[in-house]
Amino acid sequence: MLTLADLGILRRVEIDGEGTVQVWITPTYSGCPALAEMRVDVDRAVRAAGFGAVEVRTELSPAWTTDWITDEGRRKLAEHGISPPGAAPRRAAGPVPLTLLPTRTAPRCPLCRSADTEELSRFGATSCKSLHRCRSCLEPFEHVKEI
């Protein structure tokens, strides 16, 4: 349903002088368990497009942010019942401040668009999503956390 480009994970693609396709990806977070699978999928897709030599590189800086998700990616998430993230928190340059209180978002229901939702669990199927329920239509849904 989503491509790595939709999610902003695909950073750039180049072909070097020897014909090797070099692909840079930035995972959603450095410990993302899907990183190995993403690398395999990118390699497979480039080879299926007719290229023989592929190098998939991981680029951790700058760190990925949910702001990199494209409008198309946000639309696809919502169409498939996953609440897309809002704007990522803005920080000044320098160290990231530590806050001991949880940050809470009130995402809109991707099905009926109601803002009357409640968080059921801070973690959904993956660490980057939380589980919510709409109080209007009573449907559960996942929300991609703002990073």
From TrEMBL:
Residues 3-56 form the MIP18 family-like domain. Residues 99-145 form the PaaD zinc beta ribbon domain. InterPro entries: Fe-S_Maturation_MIP18 (IPR052339), FSCA_dom_sf (IPR034904), MIP18-like (IPR002744), PaaD-like (IPR011883), Zn_ribbon_PaaD (IPR056572). It comes from the Bacteria. This is Phenylacetate-CoA oxygenase subunit PaaJ. It comes from Nocardiopsis changdeensis. The gene is paaJ.
